[in-house]
Specification:
By secondary structure, the chain is of the alpha+beta class. It has two domains: 2-70, Rieske [2Fe-2S] iron-sulphur domain (Rieske Iron-sulfur Protein); 97-290, Naphthalene 1,2-dioxygenase Alpha Subunit, Chain A, domain 1, CATH 3.90.380.10. The chain is built from four helices and 16 strands. It has helices at residues 115-122, 128-131, 230-255, 276-290; strands at 2-4, 10-13, 28-30, 33-35, 42-43, 49-51, 69-70, 72-75, 78-81, 103-111, 143-152, 155-163, 184-189, 193-199, 202-212, 215-224. It has a seven-stranded antiparallel beta sheet, covered by helices on one side. A hairpin with a 2-residue loop joins β14 and β15 (202-212). The radius of gyration is 23 Å and the shape is elongated. The structure holds FE2/S2 (inorganic) cluster (FES) and fe (ii) ion. FE2/S2 (inorganic) cluster is lined by residues 17, 19-20, 22, 36, 38-39, 41. The site of fe (ii) ion (FE2) has 5 residues, from loops.
Length: 291
């Protein structure tokens, strides 16, 4: 569970009380500490019990009375937590820094899908004319050249070139596309953030937050810096948010039905050339897991 202490610092500790397993997030915050709803044990941000009411304020508290605490980092209106091994921790989480001077509005949606399916949906360049026929996929550009995928460390950039199918054209393979850098592109950074380059002054951003093996929260933001007048900026950000909601709900309808919920490098799916960003995502995700 997450909360802010009296200094505004974000703390994150396991949600399971070490006493008898109650959910700490059902408790309350008392003077910057979390009080378990069952027997009132109080926890600090370090995960240690600071008070056992039944033993009295005077009693010493054994070291075993503690839950796991996770390090947090807060910036850009987001909170990260370090879930992995302590010796593998990176200094600070990655963010697309060029977004820092843009304004944004956020839409949060809960999907009954594993995070891998949610991420892969945003790497999918062939679903647009079907899922988004009435919005961003209008125009029936079903034929897909490439796409070209460039992976540099943990940053994946993929270049999109969709076109109308005249019945005579064979799509180009990724290595047959000249000047692919000039094409429309999107980026994904492991483990879980993505952006769509609409223009230098406008982006769509998503953070995929795993809840459990079958549920994910998607934080979708539109960023822009072409309008800076306060009221107008608010209106534009709000309108962009509405359009994002419509588009994301078109995706959700299909993705929550995908089986199995979680994807793997080797699984019973027959992928095609234009699934390249998804193939590369699965491969590198597995490499990172195995590291
Ligand atoms: S279960 Fe939390 S104090 Fe008893
Ligand atoms: Fe989509």
């Amino acid at each position: 569970m997450l909360w802010r202490d009296e200094n505004g610092k974000v703390n994150c500790i396991s949600d399971k009380c070490c006493h008898r397993g109650a959910s700490l997030s059902c408790g309350k915050i008392v003077a910057g500490k979390v009080e378990c709803p069952f027997h009132g044990f109080q926890f600090g941000g370090d995960g240690k019990v600071k008070l056992i009411p039944a033993n009295g304020k005077n009693a010493s508290i054994p070291e075993t009375q503690q839950v796991k605490a996770y390090e947090t980092y807060e910036k850009y209106g987001l909170i990260w937590m370090w879930w992995g091994d302590a010796d593998k921790k990176t200094e600070k989480p990655f963010f697309f820094d060029e977004l820092a001077d843009m304004s944004y509005s956020t839409f949060i949606d809960s999907w009954n899908s594993h995070y891998s399916r949610c991420i892969e949906n945003q790497l999918d360049v062939i679903h647009l004319p079907f899922v988004h026929k009435t919005t961003i996929g209008a125009g029936n550009k079903t034929l897909v050249n490439g796409p070209v995928v460039v992976l540099k460390d943990e940053l994946m950039t993929f270049y999109v070139d969709n076109m109308l199918d005249d019945g005579k054209t064979t799509p180009l393979k990724p290595d047959e596309i000249p000047d692919f850098e000039n094409l429309f592109h999107l980026q994904f950074h492991y483990p879980n953030i993505w952006q769509n380059f609409i223009s230098d002054k406008m982006r769509i951003f998503a953070a995929f937050v795993p809840v459990d093996e079958e549920n994910t929260l998607i934080y979708l933001r539109n960023y822009q810096k072409f309008i800076r007048i306060p009221i107008l900026k608010g209106i534009v950000n709000y309108l962009m948010k509405l359009s994002n909601i419509v588009i994301l709900r078109q995706d959700k309808r299909v993705v929550v039905g995908q089986i199995p919920k979680k994807t793997e490098v080797k699984m019973d799916e027959r992928l095609i050339m234009s699934d390249k960003p998804i193939i590369e995502y699965r491969k590198h995700r597995q490499e990172l897991i195995d590291k």
